[in-house]
Structures are given as structure tokens and as C-alpha cells.
Specification:
Blueprint (H helix, E strand, L loop, with lengths): L1 E2 L2 E2 L4 E4 L2 E4 L25 H14 L2 H12 L4 E2 H8 L3 H13 L3 E6 L2 E6 L5 H11 L1
Antiparallel strand pairs: 1-2, 3-4, 5-7, 6-7
Helix pairs in contact: 2-4
Length: about 140
């Protein structure tokens, strides 16, 4: 075969970086197991579970909130907001913001005593939430 004035002993075609001998006369057709754009279905996942679990994990993804949740997990008594401000070196509004996020996802309860608010983990946490906290904190 003559290409651009050069003589090639073995005529071939280069496809996707592989060289194929064009003298091959018959190719074996392989069965198509999956076609592009045609997919199989995903297993069923409860959308409510996914949304609530994502919200919980998002709340715990912040280092300050995770520290606060861990402190509440390890504490035998409710913790005053003033103890969080002193222990974490953050202002009361910042601590209150973080506690509101934890309260929003159902992790903490609060109780006002005089001018102070005391926080504790909810007694009725779901087993899956307790399991997650055990894995993260213990």
C-alpha cells in the first residue's frame, strides 16, 4: 500500500490509539449489555429519611456545633450557654446561632433558668441519631 509516497507493508487503521489490521475480514459482534442513555432504576430510598439525615449531618459538619454536641453527649447535666461562650471563646450570639441550628434538627432541648439558658441532648433521640453520635463522639 502506498501512502504519501511511503510504502506500508501492513495496511492498518488507527482507532483510539490502537492499530487494527484492515485486512481482517470478519469481526465478531458482541452483545450490547447496556446502551448509552438507557439506565436501570436505583434502589428505593426514602426521601424523608435522606432529607432529615442530610440536615442532621449538615448541622454536625460545623466544628463548633460538633464540639457543642460532643460536650452535651459527654455531660451528665445540662450545660449553660455561658459555659459554651467561655469554653469556646465565642460570643453569646454566635453560640446561640449554633445552638439554634442544633435545635432545628432536633438534637437539643433548652430550659431557661433565670437569665441563663441551659442545653441538653434530647432524651428521645432516634436510635439512628444516637448510633451516629456514638460513632462520631465515643
Amino acid at each position: 500500500m502506498n501512502v504519501d509516497g511511503l510504502s506500508l507493508a501492513y495496511p492498518s487503521t488507527n482507532v483510539d490509539g490502537f492499530s487494527y489490521d484492515r485486512r481482517m475480514t470478519k469481526l465478531k459482534e458482541l452483545p450490547v449489555l447496556r446502551q448509552r442513555g438507557v439506565c436501570c432504576g436505583l434502589p428505593d430510598v426514602d426521601a424523608t429519611w435522606a432529607a432529615s439525615t442530610a440536615a442532621l449531618m449538615k448541622a454536625l459538619a460545623d466544628p463548633t456545633r460538633l464540639t457543642m454536641a460532643a460536650s452535651l453527649w459527654k455531660s451528665e447535666a445540662p450545660i449553660c450557654i455561658c459555659d459554651f461562650t467561655a469554653g469556646l471563646g465565642l460570643s453569646q450570639p454566635t453560640i446561640s446561632h449554633h445552638m439554634a441550628k442544633l435545635k432545628e434538627v432536633g438534637l437539643v432541648d433548652s430550659e431557661k433558668r433565670g437569665i441563663w439558658v441551659y442545653y441538653r441532648l434530647r432524651a428521645d433521640l432516634a436510635p439512628a441519631t444516637r448510633s451516629l453520635l456514638v460513632q462520631l463522639i465515643d
